[in-house]
Amino acid sequence: MGDKRRGRGFAAGWYGIARTATVDRAGAWAELDDGGTAKVVTGVTEIGEGILTVLAQVAADELGVRPEDVMLGDNDTSRTPEAAHAGASRQTYMIGNAVALACREARGRLVAEVADHWGVDPASIVTRAGAVWARNSNLRMTMDEAVRLCKGRGVVPVGSGTFASQHTGLDPETGGGRPWQAYVFGAQIAEVEVDTGTGEVQVLGVWAAHDVGRAVNPRGVEAQIEGGVVMALGQALMEDYRLKDGYTTTPGFAKYVLPTSLDVPRITSVIVEDPDPLSPLGVKGVGEPGMVPTVPAIMNAIYDAIGVRITSLPATPEAVLEALRGTRDRQPGNAAR
Amino acid sequence: MSSLELDLEINGRRIRRTVPAHMRLLDFLRDELNLTGAKEGCGAGECGTCSIFIDGVLMKSCLVPTARVQGKKIETVEGLARRGELSPLQKAFCRTGASQCGYCIPGMVMAATAALRRNPHAGMEEIKESLSGNICRCTGYQKIFEAVALARDVMNGMLPATALDAEVLGDTFVGASVRRLDAPSKVTGALKYAADMTMLGMLHMQVLRSPYPHARIVALDTAEAEAMPGVEAVVTHRDVPGVDGFGVFVHDQPVMARDKVRYVGEAVAAVAAENLDIAKAALARIKVRYEKLPAVFDAFEAMRRGAPILHDTARDNVVMHIPIRRGDVEHGFAESDVILEETYRTQAIEHAYLEPEAGLGYVDQDGVVTIVSPSQNVTHHRHALSRILALPINKVRMIMSPVGGGFGGKEDMIYQGMLALAALKTRRPVRYVFTREESIVATAKRHPFVVSYKMGVKRDGRICATSMYMVADGGAYGLSTEGVMRKAAILAAGPYNIAHVRVDAIGVYTNNTPSGAFRSFGALQSEFATESHLDMIAERLGIDPIELRRINGMRDGAITHTRQQLDSVSLMTVLDAVAKAAGWEAGAPTVRGETRSDLGAAGNRPPCTLGARLKTRETRDSWEVA
Amino acid sequence: MLTCDEYRMPETLDDALALMERHKDRYRVIAGATDLLPATRAGRLGDIHAPMIIDLSRIAALRSVAVNAERVRIGACTEMARFLDAPLLARHLPVMLHCAVWFGDDQLREAATIGGNLVNASPAADAAPPLIAMNAVVTLESRDGGTRRRRDLPLEEFVTGPGTTRLAQGELLTAIECDSMAGYGAAFEKVGHRRSLVISTVCVAALVRVDHWPGRFVDIRLAIGAIAPVPSRLRECEEFLSGKPISSATIGAAARLVSARVQSRTRRAYRAEVVVNFIERALTDAAVNAGVAFDDATRMKEVSHV
User: Do B89 and B39 belong to one domain?
Assistant: First the structure.
């Protein structure tokens, strides 16, 4: 009849941030705008990961406004500076830093005027969450007033920023080179229940610890890890794009099956922050690395549960049961929990 | 064709319309009423992006003939926040960050609404079952579950309404979980994706695709299709004025097949017509004569002498070979106490973003060719399109529409070129929306890998040498294969100190669906092999698998396999962190499942047994929001 | 896409049968439409144009349920969801409750009909094995020269192969009649590649009536789907168990009788193994749901309580 057996598996992984083995770059424009709001224009590509919110947070801190005060220009190659693609886990690193630099320049313009107006050292000026003040003084105004003051003196507080990550190509013979400047590391543990009667694997829990550099939005980081883990679970257990003589046999979502709400584990993320020393913000990335250790962690957990090594993906019920048949001589235990 | 006079109520408003009787409810909502919150993710009831209520019952509107809703009450996602105030569930989705790309979210919000309407006290297992007809590809569902539990508890008075408000923030924001700025537009269905957009005078495009994996195009005659009333243009490779080729790394894929087709589903010709029906009918009138060619479907076979050649530029069918060499692996194996060899195989997988590809193309008043599409890489696309159209870069404009999931699959310019050519030829806006089936057959997949692995270790666990020979099926075109091979190779041996490393990553052309960029870009495949292999080594040596990583793991100042020095390496920190979080019981991986003491920890869910609503009603469970 | 010249929604069965008689060969009947609409997409079967579509959704009689002491009669357009929420059906057809939770998802269950599932005759149709186990008979009706005709066929004979049935031109499957199984313990086992919206690789339906003292099987109903072109009843198993004492050993012996039945060429070895496991499980679960307590040390499986 088969029984249910549990097991745990571990796997680690690493990843490089931004485009590989070639210089990566991104640009951004920023403006402190009327009413103490801000405009950030950059060719960023929000694909659902939440990068717009991340950039608004970065701009808010750099400029001294609130995230909801920031208007972000959407990606349009004729209207925004180049910031390149959504990929390579690069956007927080590349565009986050470019936006920070653009904001610093815009803020510098504003602060210079305010400092001159107050007759204080620009370095003493703090801009934070819509307020502007000089340290060790009672000089204070709102960002709205500061922008008006600045414009009244004939200065529009704008700035631009460009950020580069210096990577070199690989030697064609040895592969030697410096493909990235920022690396991240991660490790995951998966707990599974294997039904030895059907070969079904249910992943019940995944614990995922990932270094992401400085985490701009922790909930957003978790969301990237969670989404990555489940996408990897699909690859580990069920997804399989099949072709027969070049023709697909999985033409729709009835045959190409994806994980549903009933197939996913509970996921516990542990965010490790090892700031990047080579960039202004100390951020790195998380879009892709979150899914790298999941598949082997699940396979190793299946082994822990039933002593079967799945080396060809996916571990469908058929594949698991077939492998189990191969190890039938092993003494069956009684391990249902 | 019979038409139908419909009289029904939608979101509290009475609607009367005359529509074709066989029209699907989803099309009625989207095309007739501009209620585009319901999306067409699959058109076959298999994804849930189109979920709506009919007389209070949740249904997939792609499977409902409009005739059936005569006299009924329809509620769409637009009806949930009718007076501008989000429903508690919508607020909860915003609060927990339950939306990412947002394409599944209107349907998901409707399914969650149905779950709590049926049972306001539903436990998490029942909630999960209620959501199980709605696929989400971005979130991993965790934040969605959290949102539904939160809304349930607020609606039941177990939590105050303020629990739905955005997190209270201080006066600095980096490091705070600031609520996603785009969440309200996603939970209400207000956000317009490319397929939701229309333009005045817009034409509809359909694409004729290759029925063969490898064939020469002997003749391509579009005259009959072009002569059809309502057809504004048929475009083929003959309309390409510039250098015809796209692909992020290798530009070897023409906008539409030129002299031959190299995979089933490759674009051959495109029609722009007044409506979709005419465009589809015109496809059938395009005459293509093919001469079938021998095809190759296996990467190893493709590398053999005498195999069919796909591209004249690569007579050996090799797209890219990336080698990594460090030390002398043979020496390393000779030094080893234990040598383990194994072969690993990974399969092709589909990105399966819930938003099928879609886009609009038009030529603006200044002659700028403009494409609005959910592209992950507009910068690259503008360069590619400028080359293809032989236009200066400032005469090409790419606008990114909201992306309903990408995962690497929307990096290549697989349809934007056809839109541009059709817009140039007709001087009218042209829209093209893929079906799910088209998206699956025509777009890139994750590279399947075969990894031949050999590792030598000392008895104490130190890795002496790693050799990995990896062959990946790149499919019919180059796309991102070069980059995928590079990343796979660099990261393959893992974050471990190994004196002797030999890695080869070889991407190969075959007549399969092209492989391209896919989240984690080759690293998933190569690291799967390494991390599986290390588990076997740990078993063989009787060492705890985490300990084995500690023995070999890179630390600050480590030199990578490409001989780069890393100043800061956080590997030891993440190893400790995950072991602690999971309460890992150390021990060698010797099939300990039956005897482990760390199973069933709090971070697990219960196994799914189905039928939760039939069992004892749960009211509180482990998913409560603190 | 499914297109038509005329879309008709008759309100009575008579009207539907009259339309079918009048428009011979020119119509397509739709019930839940959950199979036909996906099938007619480009890239699958492709476009289908029917001069007339006859939509059965307005015919209340096709949704009626009648129960007498022995038999249950279910209108063919009864949606799968009703097996979960109609107490009458749950009481008399306990196995359908277990089957319905595995069927599609909440939304498809509200559209998909029991009759549609049978007429489409997929080898993996989830509703067929439990109905066969309950001695289901299908009622086929037609009109000929203005006269209503009716014939009843055992469901086992009705389905002849993948996608093929004995439904004749002009005939409509109007009702399914099966044994009332009130008091039986029931179970339904299914495996696919995930747990929702999933096509069965193997499914098994079991119903058992037991004599608690001295602990014997009195009546067993067992049927299996997805392993052969048509679903089938496992009579050899049923007969073997009838009157036998309830124990894991007897259940195991019964299960081993049937592994040779697997005909599906794909994944044959897998199916053969799962069949045996499923029969054991289904019988055990059904017995537990009939109130049997197993104290067998070999029994590990978590029991689902319904």
Answer: no
pLDDT(A330) > 90: no
Interchain CB distance below 8 Å, C55 and B133: no
The mean pLDDT of B270-280, rounded to a whole number, is 97
Residue C134 CB: number of other CB atoms within 10 A?
27
Amino acid sitting at position A304: D
> Average of pLDDT values for B489-495?
98
Tell me if A1 and C274 make a contact (CB, 8 A cut-off): no
pLDDT (tens digit, 9 = 90+) per residue, B363-417?
999 999 999 999 999 999 999 999 999 999 999 999 999 999 999 999 999 999 9
| Contacting residues for C32 by C-beta, under 8 A, at least 6 apart | B63, C77, C79, C108, C111, C112, C113, C116
Q: Do C41 and B437 contact (CB within 8 A), yes or no?
A: yes
The answer to whether A237 faces chain B, any CB pair under 8 Å, is no
pTM of the predicted protein model = 0.97
Any idea of the CA torsion for B404, B409, B411, B415, to the nearest 10 degrees?
Answer: -80
Residue B342, helix vs strand vs coil:
strand
User: What is the DSSP annotation of B9-59?
Assistant: EETTEEEEEEEETT-BHHHIIIIIT--TTS--SSSSSSS-TTEEEETTEEE
Average pLDDT over residues C131-150: 96
Residues linked to residue B53 through DSSP beta bridges, in sequence order: B58, B75
**What distance in Å separates the CA atoms of residue C137 and residue C176, rounded to the nearest whole number?**
6
Per the domain annotation, does B60 fall within a domain? yes
Domain of B15: which CATH number? 3.10.20.30
| Average pLDDT value for residue range A122-131 | 98
**What is the three-class DSSP state of B526?**
helix
Q: ipTM beyond 0.90?
A: yes
Q: What are phi and psi of B128, to 5 degrees?
A: -60, -40
Query: Of all residues in chain B, what percent carry a pLDDT higher than 90?
Result: 95
Residues B9 and B57 in one domain: yes
Quote the pLDDT of residue B44. Answer: 97
Of C191, C209, C195, give the one whose Cα is nearest residue C286: C209
Q: Are residues B74 and B87 in the same domain?
A: no
Confirm or reject CATH 3.40.1160.10 for domain A24-163, answering yes or no. no
Task: Count Cβ atoms within 10 A of the Cβ of residue C161 and give its class: 0-12 exposed, 13-18 middle, 19 or more buried.
Answer: exposed
Q: How many CA atoms lie within 13 A of B66 on its CB side?
A: 30
Fold of A4-16+180-327: Aldehyde Oxidoreductase; domain 4 (3.30.365)
**Cβ–Cβ below 8 Å for C42 and B2:** no
Least confident of A5-19, A31-45, B49-63, B604-618: B604-618
The band of B591, judged by pLDDT with boundaries at 50, 70 and 90, is: very high
Residues B138 and B155 in one domain: yes
Matching residue, tokens 């592994």: C259
Q: B97 and B63 share a domain?
A: no
Query: Strand ranges (DSSP E) for A17-170?
Result: 24-33, 37-41, 70-73, 125-128, 131-134, 140-142, 158-165
CB atoms within 10 A of CB A243: 22
When CB atoms are compared, the residue of B368, B494, B579 closest to A14 is B494
What pLDDT shows up at residue A113? Answer: 98
What distance in Å separates the CA atoms of residue B547 and residue B544, rounded to the nearest whole number?
5
Chain A residues touching B575 at Cβ < 8 A: 12, 187, 209
- The CB density around residue C295, as the number of other CB atoms within 10 Å, is 5
- Whether A288 is catalytic: yes
Structural domain boundaries, residue B149: 83-171+179-191
Residue with tokens 């894991």: C248
- Sign of the four-CA dihedral B59, B63, B66, B67: negative
Nearest to A216 among B42, B174, B382 (CB): B174
Average pLDDT along chain C: 93
